[in-house]
Amino acid sequence: MLDVGFIGHVEAGGRIPLALLCKGSGMQTITPSAAPTYKVYGARPAASGSGMMEMASGTLGSSDTGSITGFRTGTLDIDYKFGAGSLYVMVFSYSDSGGSYGAMGSFEVT
Amino acid sequence: MYLGRYRQGEWVVLRGQKITPVSGSATYPYPQYDAVDPNRLLGAKTHDTTQFTGGTNPVVQVYDKEFNKVAEKEMWPEFPVKYPAIFKASLFLGSDIPEGICTSITTYTNYNRIGGVINSQGMVCSFEVLPGGHASGSYIAMHYLDLPHAKFVLGQHDSDSLDFRKNPKV
Q1: pLDDT band with cut points at 50, 70 and 90 for residue B47
Q2: How many Å apart are CA A5 and CA B124, to the nearest integer?
Q3: Based on C-alpha coordinates, what's the Rg of chain A?
Q4: Which domains does chain A have, with CATH numbers?
Q5: Is residue B124 within 8 Å of residue B16, measured between CB atoms?
Q6: What domains are defined for chain B?
Q7: B102 beta partners
Q8: Which of A74, A93, A61, A59 is nearest to A17 (CA)?
Q9: Model confidence over A18-74: pLDDT tens digits?
Q10: Do A66 and B69 meet the contact criterion of CB atoms below 8 Å apart?
Q11: Which residues of chain B have a CB within 8 Å of the CB of A65?
């Protein structure tokens, strides 16, 4: 799985830019067969158990940004569900004729 | 890779490493930059890809938080003799780079010896431009001049721009 890594800090109520360079086997850039999807996970509130819970989901762009093959971008609105001072993890998914791939990233709400 | 937080007027160093996949199960050692401290070069690690030298230099494009392209630069080898596959470009964060999270994407194409395309590769990084700072950078030199009609201060920024201040005498 690719490592998008830490994306940055964003204020509650703001927007965070999401960028993914889709890569297939051998780390070569590919054109995904459909727009990449993502899911955002955060820590479950202590009152409702432990572990992670899904906070948001969406899709990145269906066409390449900047005419760069496989470079798909989008933005995520950080609404009231996201608590300040918390770290969130996101998982990207995409596929092409060669298989299905994934990538992980994270960001912090300040 | 996250490159850190900067203010306008500072420089951010963008790096890229040309690699290419290899067939079979062999692994190849080569150094890479630390994911936690992107300015620190780690010793040789083992990968299922190998460094690729030759061909064209990588190009890095920088996008602002709305994904408008705000900069594009060609990278140059950082250690041409010892690590010829490691490239870098320095980007000055002037007034053309807005606040917020910026995304840099480094792309390059590997060619074989007769010019045929082997593959295309790339890497995405992010960094943050914080409010504050000075879009012209820091002073690296100042000269004070006291003339009969006014006092002058001439400053030079590290962005290679000049700052001229005048205080007239009445």
Answers
A1: low
A2: 9
A3: 15
A4: 2-109 (2.60.40)
A5: no
A6: 2-133 (2.60.40), 139-168 (no CATH)
A7: B127
A8: A74
A9: 999 998 877 788 899 999 999 999 888 777 777 888 889 999 998 998 888 899 999
A10: yes
A11: 63, 67
- Beta-strand relationship, A15-21 and A2-10: unpaired
| pLDDT at position B137 | 78
The pTM assigned to this predicted structure is 0.80
3-state SS, residue A14? coil
- List B14's β-bridge partners, or say none: B89
Q: Report whether pLDDT(B46) > 70.
A: no
Q: Determine the residue type at B167.
A: N
Q: Which residues contact B78 (CB under 8 A, 6 or more apart)?
A: B15, B86, B87, B88
Reading the block at residue B129, the tokens are 């431009």
Gap from B158 CA to chain A (nearest CA, Å): 27
A27 → closest Cβ in B5, B105, B121: B121
